[in-house]
Amino acid sequence: MLLAIIFPFLSFLLRGKIITAVLCFILQITVLGWLPAAIWATMSLSNERAEKRNEKLIRAVRESRNHH
Predict the structure, then answer these.
(1) How far apart are CA 47 and CA 34, in angstroms?
(2) Which 3-state string (H, E, C) describes 20-66?
(3) How far apart are CA 39 and CA 45, in angstroms?
(4) Whole-model pTM?
(5) Residues 53, 17: Cα–Cα separation, whole Å
(6) Rounded Cα gap, residues 33 and 25, in angstroms
């Protein structure tokens, strides 16, 4: 999360989102654009983590239904 705040473009790059990372970097290099870039990267990371949690919960529910 700290990486997404300090180096927003790098957060996207490390997650394999190259085009998004380039766009974020362009936004980040402007003084006024750095804050929106940091917010964008942080929210994107948070959403990705939430999606993974939801997928895990859905799998667990489906497995418990199959066992009963």
Answers:
(1) 20
(2) HHHHHHHHHCCCCCHHHHHHHHHHHHHHHHHHHHHHHHHHHHHHHHH
(3) 10
(4) 0.66
(5) 20
(6) 9
Contacts of 11 (CB under 8 A, 6+ apart): 3, 4, 41, 42, 44, 45
Q: Which tens digits make up the pLDDT trace of 11-59?
A: 889 989 999 999 988 988 887 887 888 898 899 999 999 999 999 999 9
Q: How far apart are CA 60 and CA 27, in angstroms?
A: 40
Integer angstrom CA distances of residue 43 from 27, 47, 51:
16, 6, 12
And the tokens for 17?
A: 């989102």
CB 17 within 8 A of CB 47: no
